[in-house]
Design a protein that fits this description.
204 residues; Rossmann fold; four-stranded mixed sheet; 9 strands; globular; binds guanosine-5'-monophosphate
């Protein structure tokens, strides 16, 4: 059996991480989604415990102090963090765990989890990125501008990632991510006893 691994998906606000992740998870029951904790207020369509664990700043800080996050960061004026236990349990079971996190969080994971796979999701153009943030209609004008300005800063970190995927069409982005997962599963270092397993197949 191949070992489980972390699949880290980052990309600027409006690159479509949420949509692509949901489409990927719908198609691939073998991928587990890590539900992040955040102090951001829920958007109208978001459900606590499904999209995020929505916490007060006090609750978030308390988890942080107890070392219950795999990584955490302050993004667009709110705190976000990956609860540790779920991820470690799933990896132990051999599962692929999807983390949809920002570049600061990805860099923390990169330091501590050498075997994670890092994918950066790009919009087809920056104009399209801004359109998508505006079209979502859930952010204030101040927040839209902050998210758009942060997008340029986040792009500086694309060189830290293993792969990039352009999200022009969601189904194509999902296919690209599946291709990455497929190759990662075939990595020799992710398997133990390849020779032994081949020999077990017998043959004359
Ligand atoms: P949003 O508010 O649009 O849901 O997310 C804002 C940003 O926070 C996105 O870049 C998203 O990937 C990132 N984010 C979501 N959860 C986490 C997390 O657990 N850790 C970190 N570092 N970033 C996160």
């Amino acid at each position: 059996m191949s070992k489980g691994f972390l699949l880290v998906l980052s990309g600027p606000s409006g690159s479509g991480k949420g949509t692509v992740s949901q489409a990927l998870l719908k198609k691939r029951k073998d991928i587990k989604f890590s539900i992040s904790a955040t102090t951001r207020k829920p958007r109208p369509n978001e459900v606590n415990g499904e999209n995020y664990f929505f916490l007060s700043e006090e609750e978030f800080k308390s988890m942080q102090e107890k070392g219950e996050f795999l990584e955490s960061a302050f993004v667009h004026a709110n705190y976000y963090g990956t609860p540790k236990q779920f991820v470690l349990d799933e990896i132990e079971k051999g599962e692929i765990v999807l983390l949809e996190i920002d570049v600061q969080g990805a860099l923390q994971i990169k330091k501590n989890y050498k075997e994670a796979v890092f994918i950066f999701l790009l919009p087809p153009t920056m104009d399209e990125l801004k359109n998508r943030i505006i079209k979502r209609g859930t952010e204030t004008e101040e927040d839209i501008n902050r998210r758009f300005a942060n997008a340029f800063k986040e792009l500086d970190f694309v060189g830290e990632y293993d792969f990039f995927v352009v999200n022009d069409k969601v189904e194509n982005a999902v296919k690209d991510i599946e291709a990455i997962i497929h190759s990662e599963k075939l990595r020799v270092k992710r398997h133990k006893d390849i020779k032994l397993n081949v020999l077990k197949q017998g043959g004359k």
